[in-house]
Design a protein that fits this description.
Blueprint lengths: L2 H9 L30 E6 L8 E3 L6 H14 L3 E7 L4 E7 L6 E12 L2 E10 L8 H16 L7
Parallel strand pairs: 1-2
Antiparallel strand pairs: 1-6, 3-4, 4-5, 5-6
Helix pairs in contact: 2-3
């Protein structure tokens, strides 16, 4: 850990730990009751009509829910400084800690895949900062990056 990150960890304890350490294991999140803070340090990607309103609207994916969940987990595993914090396969929900490069700030990312209709599914991705009021767009950029990476793992639209 760089010396500045170590110093910051004296004030913000979770910054002093590697991976997902230093943070409690997240419980299953009830996505029907997400309450976003008034601070601009979250990003929500979800299907149209989702409440609360998403920042990014995700499509209906024409792949079975279990397959989409596996692909989303592959995307998460490919992200730098991102660590699985909890996995709830029955709910097709996973939680991750994504750490910033310089100061080791932890952000929390929750993904959940829901069956939409036979052979189709949808995705909810909620990324939020642990510390700070603002995030300089980091959580939205993360959501966009994950969704772009997921699109690259899916078959072309005509085959979905």
């Amino acid at each position: 850990m760089n010396p500045l990150a170590w110093l910051i960890s004296l004030v913000l304890p979770a910054c002093g730990f590697p991976a997902a350490e230093g943070l409690p294991t997240p419980p299953v999140m009830d996505v029907a009751h997400i309450v976003r803070p008034a601070t601009p340090n979250t990003a929500l990607a979800a299907p149209a009509g989702f409440t609360p309103a998403p920042d990014i609207v995700t499509p209906v994916y024409h792949v079975p829910a279990d397959r989409l969940f596996a692909l989303v987990r592959e995307v998460a595993a490919d992200q730098p400084r991102t660590y699985q914090a909890a996995l709830y396969p029955e709910q097709r929900q996973a939680h991750y800690v994504a750490r910033s490069a310089v100061f080791n700030f932890p952000d929390l990312v929750m993904v959940q895949v829901r069956a939409d209709s036979p052979g189709s599914s949808d995705l909810i991705l909620y990324s939020r900062s642990v510390y700070g009021r603002g995030d300089l767009g980091v959580n939205r950029k993360r959501a966009e990056t994950w969704l772009d990476a997921l699109d690259k793992k899916l078959p072309p639209s005509s085959e979905r």
